[in-house]
Amino acid sequence: MGDWKKVYERWDSFQGLDQVLRNQLDELKNDENALEEAFYQELTFGTGGMRGILGPGTNRMNIYSVRKAVQGLANHLMANDSHTKERGVVIAYDSRHMSQEFAIEAAKVLGMFDIKTYIFSSLRPTPVLSFAVRHLGTKSGIMITASHNPPEYNGFKVYNEDGGQITLEDASAIINAVQQVEEGLTVEVMEQAELEEKGLLEWIDEEVDNAYLEKLSRITKMDSETIAKEKDLRIVFSPLHGTAHDLVPRGLQQLNFANVSIVAEQAEPDPEFSTVESPNPEEDAAFTLAIKQGREQNADILLATDPDADRLGVAVKGEDGKYRLLTGNQLGVLLLDYILSHTDQEVLQNGQTLKTIVTTDLGEAIADSYGAKTTTTLTGFKFIAEKIREYDETGENFLFGFEESYGYLVSGFARDKDAVQAVMMTCEMAYYWKEKGKTLIDALNILYEKHGFYLEGITQLTLAGIEGSAKIKKIMEHVRANPFQEIAGLRVEKFEDYLSSERQIIGESKTTEKIDLPKENVLKFMLEQDSWVCLRPSGTEPKIKSYYGVCGKSYEESEEVLASLQSTIEQEVDKIIKD
Questions:
Q1: pLDDT tens, position by position, 66-85
Q2: I need a surface site. Which of 101, 176, 379, 388 has the fewest CB within 10 A?
Q3: Which residue, of 401, 423, 451, is where some domain finishes?
Q4: How many domains does the chain have?
């Protein structure tokens, strides 16, 4: 961006600056490091949207960064579809600070283009936004959320007319359109009262919810007799202060799961997520209150959704009476096996399951055993949604999609990961196994015994700020230029570089294959003994992630190999940073 001080001075001298941001900016005036962090670059509008810390500055989430992004989006939409005005844009938002305000700001920009905006009158899950795009037939959708990030974050995700996150092609065009907008400070907006008076802003509510719930009721694999039964499954649910507090209980009620207990301290929306360090259902700590309540009520299963309800974490009681949190991969393969085992053979034969390049290979082994195909996509549910759209045209049956980061989709009526759908299917699956005298842990062990002891792990290294970005870049460049020949004593058999779209087969005669996927800054090493390691910078957080997968002859063997891989990569990354 050039000299950050000049950008700061432009903000500081801007007469019409929002008063809250003015006060925050004044508090930073003697902290040069904080000012540089806030102004050294523009908040990146990436392949799905943007996410950042709230506050004043071009590198922060605020009304001006939102206005600039929406101006670029509107320019793109108007240039590519003459029906954009009447089709409109639907917007939803979660429980974070400024979420509703950002939703209204987006409408105020769209109104300048005479584009109609539909906004939910209260917070809603991300999958409901995805569904609403399809249900209302809008040209686009916007979700104001920062998913499971800490309270100081918020974000902005863009959806296409199919209800999926925008494609790479559209993202590139929108990014270019956003970059053409000079700055957010001077973007013109229409006031809310005028929007409503002109019919350019419509508040929506129960109609979309009811349509979503009707679709939700159809995903069950239970017959009508089983649905009508009173079910002896004791459920504890926490929305982690987010958006699932209403739809999850209503969905479970439709299937007659009557024994549902909500974690009261986490039932109400709270932008500070005050009962947890992080509102992330991937972490054990997020289940502390649910486990306490589960013990008191002798619950069979504990469920927690993240703030925008697109991710689901599950803990189940073992034989020792202790609750164990399933990994995203473990819940994914359990759901996959349950769904496929209750699907007609004719549907299976023309069926497709979907996973990502860093998701467990056990999913493919399970699908193979049922005669279903597996397609692997890049990391991110947008790529899974794109494949489902292809199946709409080819007539193939979408059976299930999942990724290791606790994202699942059972039915394509939504086109993003859907924790509400996942809750329904998880509860009926747990009930199915309980009727057989087994827990989900027992069911998981059956899969291991049948297909192999697949285990996965992940290391996340947070490297924030200007210096952190440089370190992440250095790690990827070093490994790309000096690829591992072996890791933890395991020989590399294939080296995949998704940025160059090349797969190197390592052997006596090295050969190169084309990787038929979009380009992404990811490196993956396929090792002997069915193991692999993958390095990938996060697209939404200042992190570099290392993923690991192994398949041993026993659980203990897999644990040992997994620990060795993780330790080796952590040491190598640390060495690169320090060199």
A1: 999 999 999 999 999 889 99
A2: 176
A3: 451
A4: 3
Residue of 147, 405, 531, 546 marked catalytic: 147
Residues 422, 465, single domain; the answer is no
Q: DSSP for 377-400?
A: E-SSHHHHHHHHHHHHHH-PEEEE
Residues 6+ apart with CB under 8 A from 37: 57, 59, 465, 466
Indicate whether 473 and 438 sit together in one domain. Answer: no
Amino acid, single-letter form, for residue 436: K
502-505 and 373-377 as β-strands: parallel, antiparallel, unpaired?
unpaired
| Predicted confidence band of residue 466 (pLDDT cuts 50, 70, 90) | confident
Residues 204 and 247 in one domain: no
Do 565 and 548 contact (CB within 8 A), yes or no? yes
What is the DSSP annotation of 37-53?
Answer: HHHSSPPP--SSEEEEE
Half-sphere exposure of 353 (CA within 13 A, CB side): 32
With the C-alpha atoms ordered 571, 576, 577, 579, is the resulting torsion angle positive or negative? positive
Give CA angle at 432 (429, 434), nearest 5°.
110
Phi, then psi, of 464 in degrees rounded to 5: -85, 160
Active site (annotated) includes residue 147:
yes
Please indicate, yes or no, whether residues 551 and 411 belong to a single structural domain of this protein: no
Same domain, 308 and 422: yes
418 vs 538, more confident: 418
Q: What is the dihedral of CA 48, 54, 57, 59, to 10 degrees?
A: -30
Domain that holds residue 129: 4-211
- What token pair was written down for 170? 């559209």
458 and 446, same structural domain?
no
